[in-house]
Amino acid sequence: MQNQTALDLSPYQSFSPADWSRFRREMPIVLNQQDIEMLQGLNDRLSMDEVDNVYMPLARLVMMYKEAYLELHRSTQSFLQLERKPMPFIIGIAGSVAVGKSTTARLLQELLTQWDRSKKVDLITTDGFLYPNAVLEKKGLMDKKGFPQSFDRKALLTFLSEIKAGKEVVNAPIYSHFDYDILPYQKIKIERPDILIVEGINVLQPGYLPKEGEAIPFVSDFFDFSIYVDAEKRLVEKWYLERFMMLRETAFRDPNSYFHRYSKLDMEEAEQTAIDIWHRINLKNLNQNILPTRQRADLILTKGKDHWVNSIALRKV
């Protein structure tokens, strides 16, 4: 009886990939295996079956939400007797380091673009809104890079506000994982997208609530749909270590890479270094800041040991 009560009180309805696949319906197959391999992350895995059964129905659902959102927006404009102008639909994608957020974001962008080529679908990551290393060092935050306090929250909120307002061109800073820093004087231009995907570990983090109830916007206030990519912590740690060791044999070997020093470690030293970084920084951030935001998402994709989604939870309407 207790289990049934807990299930009834859950804000989510859960589906297996087999059940979820029934909702794909008329959406055609638009990608091949080569396309999928180009979209997946360094040590992530995608298959045609997973794209077909999980991500195509998700793309269809997002498009349905988008149409409903636009109709509501048009009704509000009509009620307020305002000039009708298009409003971008913003999707937030959150989750731990190494869980596969970037793969999900790129794949969803491609599917939504293929769904309606007349619509412009852009993607940004919040890494670009990290403070530059010089600022983080001055603030003593280099060991908390990726924690909420390491981001220029004001700049990110301004960016999202201008996107929602329909500004013609909005610039976003660019982050280089190779340099492990913001690229000065370089920007990415976002020009009035129909859909914008915002991917980042802490995008659902509400920040500090105002004591007196004054209006303090959160990043997620600008989202019209949100996704949390989830997996057991032991699995995410395993994927993080695998990725670290792969980078040690590839990108880290470049003498200009910020992490070049790690390529000189032997296998045992490299593994121990990766474990230390995971527990000292990434796991702490996951426990304190990222995982607590999971229940704020509209949809949760839970991955199993093979990186493939084995459960989909959709917030009840």
Give an overview of the whole structure.
The protein is α/β, with parallel strands linked by helices. The chain has a single domain, classed as P-loop containing nucleotide triphosphate hydrolases (Rossmann fold, 3-Layer(aba) Sandwich). It has nine helices and nine strands. Strands 1-9-8-7-2-6-3 form a seven-stranded mixed sheet. The two termini are 24 Å apart.
Q: Based on DSSP secondary structure assignment, what is the total number of beta strands?
A: 9
Gross CATH architecture = 3-Layer(aba) Sandwich
Task: Return the string of H and E elements.
Answer: HEHHHEHEHHEEEEHHEE
Structural class: alpha/beta
Mean pLDDT: 91
In terms of topology, how is this protein built?
Layout: H1 2-9, E1 12-15, H2 17-20, H3 33-39, H4 48-79, E2 89-95, H5 101-115, E3 121-125, H6 133-139, H7 153-164, E4 170-176, E5 181-190, E6 195-199, E7 225-230, H8 233-248, H9 267-290, E8 299-303, E9 309-315
Parallel strand pairs: 2-6, 2-7, 3-6, 7-8
Antiparallel strand pairs: 1-9, 4-5, 8-9
Helix pairs in contact: 4-5, 8-9
